[in-house]
Amino acid sequence: MFRAIDTVGFVGLGAMGSGIARRIMDAGHLVVGWNRTKARAEDLIAAGMGWAATPREAAEQCDVVFTMLTNTAAVQEAAEGEDGLLAGLSAGKVWADLSTIAPDASVALAEEVATTGARYLDTPVSGSPATLAAGQMSVMVGGDRAAYNHVEQLLHAIGPKVTYIGPNGHAILTKVAINLTLVVSVTAFAEAVTLAEKAGVDRAAVVDAALKSVVASPVIGYRAPLLVDDDTVFADVELQQKDLVLAQELGRRLGAMLPTCSAASEMLSAARSSDLAGRDFLVSVADVYRRAAGVTSS
């Protein structure tokens, strides 16, 4: 039997996490949050969010707890120890992890959570802060079907597109595959724009034409303007390459060929040394292509 969802915990209040927590609050739920740096949560606290001193306290106080953290190590750190989430979970609760982490680690966490009587769902999201703000975020779900049914409406507060994939680990596996597609397509777009620009075509004109063409996928739609005059950072090189590394590790384990993944990862490795590496990874990769091609126009 699951607990009625009266209070929702949220661990990890970075750019994406804070936006998701706010959407949950706007849907009428009481949220109690924790973040390593409390100052980043001040706006949410001012808006009525409760504060937990530790991840454990968030889990103890809440019926459902979400995590949105940078990588596998960060999620495991929030889970373990006397102040960790596992110590605060109990029967009837649900932990839903929105992060993109190693699939094997996600499955292992599900097994640990089960020993507390709670249930763990891998619930990675697809989109960016811009997608979230537009109400178009999508959520994939892996884990116990009854736990999914229990929190489904809460997930719809995050975004309208919620898909149950299968057992624990299947949603995060799907997310890794989707992000492989995302990075490869965005990297190819940077390559194509550079080719046209090298031939003398105005970069802004190329971007404008692309946005009116069949290649204008949602991710190209919100990222392409970054090549012209937008300093927004949806994901920098290091954060985005993390997802490709997860895909490459999975490919090696399964014996699956991932040639375009490897090529895109090499471009991200080159982009990490660019002086634009702190900007969105599309801008950083385009910088590498342009310098290699000798393109010097603005």
Structure report:
This protein has 298 residues and is of the alpha/beta class. 52% of the residues lie in helices and 12% in strands. The strands form two sheets. It has a six-stranded parallel β-sheet with strand order 3-2-1-4-5-6, sandwiched between helices. A three-stranded mixed β-sheet has the order 7-8-9, with helices on both faces. Strand 1, helix 1 and strand 2 (30-34) form a beta-alpha-beta unit. Helix 9 packs across helix 13 (259-271) and helix 13 (259-271) packs across helix 14. The protein is globular and about 65 Å long. It starts with 6 loop residues before the first strand and ends in a 5-residue tail after the last helix. The model has no long low-confidence stretch (mean pLDDT 95).
Q: Could you name the key traits of this structure?
A:
12% strand, globular, 6-stranded parallel sheet, single chain, 298 residues, 3-stranded mixed sheet, alpha/beta, 9 strands, 14 helices
Proportion of residues in helical segments: 40-55%
Number of strands: 9
- Strand arrangement across the biggest beta sheet: 3-2-1-4-5-6
Give the terminus-to-terminus CA distance: 61 Å
* Rg on CA atoms, Å: 20 Å
Query: Could you spell the SSE succession in H and E letters?
Result: EHEHEHEHHEHEEHEHEHHHHHH
Mean of all residue-level pLDDT scores = 95
Uncertain stretches: none
- How much β-strand is present in the residues? 5-15%
Q: Main beta sheet: strand number and arrangement?
A: 6 strands, parallel
Query: Helix/strand-derived class?
Result: alpha/beta
User: What is the overall shape?
Assistant: globular
* Number of separate helices: 14
Oligomer designation: single chain
